[in-house]
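TA notes, week 10

Several of you asked for a full example with nothing omitted. So below is the full record: structure tokens for the whole chain, then the designed sequence directly under it. When grading your own attempts, check the secondary structure regions first.
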């Protein structure tokens, strides 16, 4: 770093931005390493998880009713791919150039856009400053508040889908700062929901190639620190009585067909059954007696039978469950492992060859484990494996057992972080992110089950082109 100035002094940057000083200090250190060494941790992987190696499980059927679950829907982030085609429209309005606007409008009008944009197609409307300002404000809205099809926003569509799934008791939407009133206006009036803001305590700041903070309008440029920062909200949710989360991306618009609802309800019941059996094992092991151990072994054997694991594959059901199904490192005691929360991540076949959000086995310092890796953490040789193996992809369909202990996420975050390299205000900008699904799927600290889902539960809408024909 250069000599201390307001552009790199953590205390001053915190005062000017409102972002906690600790967040800035951590970001500075990691970005300095990245800029000087190109550092992003690459894991020693042992191959992708799939059905053949039992890293991914089939959905086992159960007659048990699903638990009542809280939907947890993160904001859509920067969504740069989505907004990129709208840059010409924005520039034309800012320049007050009707000719440029019409050219940009011809390219964009096939997409669902706010009505205020179409209004400007008439020259008389374009000349009115108030209408241009209204259009600009609409173009600056977060993705959740933008149309995913004509007349319906992403937020409204996701709200309807969640209601149709059949197992959601309450909804928690994470909002960008200052947008809660707009969210409230769009969510159905009879919905049982909370709004949680990803404010400055869950944010970081952008740095340039010299490692100095980027300023915008006199203040450090603040940006969310990725979905991984949202784990800080879990303890508060737990204290308010929430026990189980269903986590899904706002822009994965699955629709609410019977086949989609049936698949997600099946995964919800899988989570319910697995968790009830796991809780039984916890209670039995807590007795610390031979009787308790025998009872826990019997429950584990029943669970393996439900999962259709060949009985000839194991002698000790408890050890096999935790070490060969949940893939907990052998250095962790069975009692400790059972006490950790359950995370069930749906997985779809990786037909499109994605190189991020892939479940992998890896060699950790405490033994073999598994995790759902983002692209920056997958070494080149492991990416090549994806071409020759039946790999799976995380569509962000997660059932999560909440815990009061968030330290487990902090431990994972110290290993699983990466530096985003973006363009901001015409220059390269760097900031530190973590991915929530890496943090949730680290089997060093969680009981993790990757479970196969059909490909139709993954319908991402990352670009405006994806929104054409939205169900």
């Amino acid at each position: 770093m250069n000599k201390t100035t307001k552009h790199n002094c953590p205390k001053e940057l915190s005062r000017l931005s409102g972002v906690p000083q600790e967040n800035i200090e951590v970001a500075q250190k990691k970005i300095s390493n990245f800029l000087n060494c190109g550092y992003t941790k690459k894991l020693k992987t042992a191959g992708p998880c799939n059905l053949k190696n039992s890293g991914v499980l089939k959905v086992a059927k159960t007659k048990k009713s699903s638990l009542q679950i809280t939907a947890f829907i993160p904001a859509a982030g920067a969504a740069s791919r989505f907004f990129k085609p709208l840059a010409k429209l924005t520039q034309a309005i800012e320049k007050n150039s009707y000719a440029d606007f019409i050219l940009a409008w011809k390219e964009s009008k096939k997409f669902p856009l706010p009505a205020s944009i179409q209004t400007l197609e008439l020259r008389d409307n374009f000349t009115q400053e108030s209408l241009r300002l209204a259009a600009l404000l609409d173009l600056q809205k977060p993705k959740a508040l933008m149309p995913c099809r004509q007349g319906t926003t992403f937020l409204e569509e996701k709200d309807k889908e969640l209601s149709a799934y059949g197992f959601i008791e309450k909804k928690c939407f994470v909002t960008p700062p200052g947008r809660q009133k707009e969210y409230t206006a769009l969510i159905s009036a009879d919905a049982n929901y909370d709004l949680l803001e990803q404010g400055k305590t869950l944010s970081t700041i952008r740095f340039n190639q010299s490692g100095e903070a980027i300023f915008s309008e006199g203040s450090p440029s603040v940006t969310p620190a990725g979905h991984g920062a949202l784990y800080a909200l879990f303890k508060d949710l737990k204290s308010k009585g929430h026990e189980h989360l269903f986590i899904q991306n706002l822009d994965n618009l699955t629709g609410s067909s019977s086949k989609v609802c049936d698949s997600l309800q099946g995964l919800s019941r899988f989570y319910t059954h697995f968790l009830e059996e796991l809780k039984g094992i916890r209670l039995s092991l807590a007795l610390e007696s031979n009787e308790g151990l025998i009872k826990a072994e019997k429950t584990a054997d029943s669970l393996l039978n439900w999962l259709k694991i060949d009985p000839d594959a194991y002698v000790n059901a408890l050890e096999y469950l935790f070490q060969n199904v949940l893939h907990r490192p052998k250095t962790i005691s069975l009692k400790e492992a059972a006490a950790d929360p359950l995370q069930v991540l749906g997985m779809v076949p990786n037909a499109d060859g994605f190189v991020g959000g892939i479940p992998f086995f890896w060699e950790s310092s405490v033994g073999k484990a598994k995790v759902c890796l983002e692209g920056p953490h997958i070494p080149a040789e492991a990416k090549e494996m994806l071409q020759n193996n039946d790999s799976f992809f995380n569509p962000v369909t997660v059932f999560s057992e909440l815990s009061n202990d968030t330290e487990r996420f902090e431990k994972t975050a110290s290993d699983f972080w990466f530096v985003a390299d973006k363009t901001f205000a015409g220059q390269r900008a760097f900031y530190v992110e973590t991915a929530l699904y890496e943090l949730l799927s680290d089997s060093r600290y969680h009981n993790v089950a990757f479970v196969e889902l059909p490909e139709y539960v993954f319908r991402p809408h990352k670009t405006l082109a994806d929104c054409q024909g939205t169900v």
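The chain has 18 helices and 20 strands. Use that as a sanity check on your answer.
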